[in-house]
Amino acid sequence: MRQTTDKLSIQNVALARLNETKDTFFGIIAHDLRSPLTALNGSGSLMKHFLKQGKQIQVNTLADQIDLTTNRLSSLLDNLLNWALLQKGTIPYKPLKINVHSSINSILELFENNADLKQINIINQNDQKSQIFVDESSFNTIFRNLIHNAIKFSNDNGEIVVHSKQEENMTHISVEDNGIGMTLEQIESIYSDTQIQHRGTAAESGTGLGLTLIQQLVKLNKGTFKMKSELNKGSRVSIFLQAAK
To answer: 3-state SS of the chain: helix, strand, coil percent to 5?
Structure first.
């Protein structure tokens, strides 16, 4: 009887913690959704005004801002959906062989505008023949978040290098930047699944959900996650995933 009571007590504590985490996430995400939606409000009218005035430079600038805002909204909603599915244990897991170099290239193309605005050079140094055995949707979510973070925390004229190498039956893929880096406390918060919001070098906001999601998706794909960072010198995130045979 006592064992049952103790078990129920532990389950209730875990449930309360999960609900608290959920409420925190939704509060942060609601706040972060409001900002880009406000930015989009009236963009169409403003673009029409600039077109009538023949102000092509302003039209191009506004178009870039709309692209960045919609990309941010899409990424935020993708993360929220994936996190919800992970909590329910219903996220699809269908591993297959994918080419690392071409998959990373497709992801980098999504962030060309973001990188160009901060004049950041992104280098894809992945072996063109390297293949891994992972769920493709998970892989894309992992590296979309990693590239987004690298750009967010890089200074203007920075550099980001994506590199891979074979290590026995695993493929080590790293994303390294020379940006603002992180403190030991910030790194520990990532490993403990504590969501702490950090603004980027251009005041970009964030929920802190991305790195938590990355770790969970890496675990789903039977891989491992490691991070090294030094304040004002940059960060290096390493993902180890199963190599395709």
So the answer is: 55, 20, 25
Give residues with Cβ within 8 angstroms of 11, minimum separation 6.
none
Nearest CA to 186 out of 175, 198, 174 is that of: 198
Domain boundaries, the chain: 2-87, 93-242
pTM assigned to the model: 0.70
The CA dihedral of 237, 160, 143, 29, to the nearest 10 degrees, is 90
Q: What is the CATH number of domain 2-87?
A: 1.10.287
H/E/C letters for each residue in 119-153?
CCEEEEECCCCCEEEEEHHHHHHHHHHHHHHHHHC
Rounded to an integer, what distance in angstroms lies between the CA atom of residue 204 and that of residue 3? 49
Q: Do 91 and 120 form a contact (C-beta atoms < 8 A)?
A: no
**What pLDDT, on a 0 to 100 scale, did the predictor assign at position 22?**
59
Class of domain 93-242: alpha beta
Distance between CA atoms of 123 and 162, rounded to whole angstroms? Answer: 6
Report helix, strand or coil for 19: helix
Low-confidence ranges of the chain (pLDDT < 70): 1-8, 11, 13-36, 38-39, 79, 83, 87-88, 193-209
Render pLDDT for 152-207 as a digit per residue (tens, 0 to 9). 999 999 999 999 998 889 999 999 999 999 888 888 877 775 555 565 554 454 54
**Please, which residues have CB within 8 angstroms of residue 152's CB and are 6 or more apart in sequence?**
200, 201, 202, 204, 206
